Known about the structure:
Blueprint: E1 3-7, E2 10-13, E3 18-25, E4 33-39, E5 46-51, E6 57-58, E7 67-72, E8 77-82, E9 91-99, E10 102-103, E11 112-117
Parallel strand pairs: 2-11
Antiparallel strand pairs: 1-3, 3-8, 4-5, 4-9, 5-6, 7-8, 9-10, 9-11
Amino acid sequence: QVQLVESGGGLVQAGGSLRLSCAASGFTFSINAMGWFRQAPGKEREFVAGIGTDGSTYYPESVKGRFTISRDNAKNQVFLQMNSLKPDDTAVYYCNAVRKGASKYNSWGQGTQVTVSS
């Protein structure tokens, strides 16, 4: 059973930083690409960062240069360092395995709320 537990969100002022963590279980973490997604109120869930099994990373233009994804295969964890946060980054953040540029599993965690005040 896939389980994803996100943590590390909070309230931060614009320009601030947060580091999100995700603990994964129920699948073979090391052989899966992993990603972070976010969903703002009234909007579709969107992809914000991905990391391959080889450590390669990819980001959409909206967060490139501000967000950094990393992983720890020994602990089955994936992280998202978010710097220079903007009010538009306000959303609930989720992690999931990634396949062909989209989330792999239908099971999602509870997410972690990130709120950026102006």
